Amino acid sequence: MTVTLERPYITITNIIWSFDWRTQQINVLLIKRADAPFKGFWALPETAMRVHEGAHEAALRLVREKIGLSLSAVHAEQLATFTAPDRVPGNRALSLSYMTFLPDRPKLVPGPGTTDAQWFALAPEGHGHFSFHYGKYAFTTLADNEYLHDQTPTTGLAFDHNWILTVACRRIANKLNYQPTILLILGPTFTLKQARYIYNQFGQHEPDNSNFLRNHQHLLTATGTSQQDGPGRPAKEYRLTHA
Length: 243
Fold this sequence. Notes:
Blueprint: E1 9-20, E2 25-33, E3 42-43, E4 46-48, H1 55-67, E5 76-82, E6 93-101, E7 114-126, E8 129-134, E9 137-140, H2 161-174, E10 190-191, H3 192-201, H4 209-216, E11 220-225, E12 236-240
Parallel strand pairs: 1-6
Antiparallel strand pairs: 1-2, 1-4, 2-3, 2-7, 5-6, 7-8, 8-9, 10-12, 11-12
């Protein structure tokens, strides 16, 4: 029996997270595609992995080239590999997906192959579901039985990016108690109140600072107190111990 071997393209799909201090919302970056397939659809940023680089390096390069930020390796982590045969029309393509956590939010400028780039704000919908919205556009994470084939092409993201975003949200929620790298979007240091807000958005409700610190002290290192212009005691600041 003859076995046909695949020689797929390898793409890096990047879920880029940030925090908007003005609106106090967690954001993810989406771009609007200028070319087929899925011309005019919103999608997660992607890049092709180059011959002489690894996937982690490619994920950081995408952020450097598309957003203008040079980040250390700790700001990116591999999410999963997506290999469904029909995830991309035409030639077979695998996606090595990464999550990247930005400590800053530079101005977005649409690059080659895109007509727009925007931050979409996360909103928890309950029962482990999330929506992302910008203006009139909104997308929701999926249930397991909605993966790929049951999506409505006119309402979903390009390719299987709704599902990739779904897996990303689940991963963040599941890692809050042992590797909450999502807190890197708050910058190098943060207060307990700010960290609790991020936890609450991903479904882990923390009622007060004392309980939060007791439950997560193995993850946090105190760094001092914050700068405060108004009345009251300045808040203590922390950083991720292993970041």
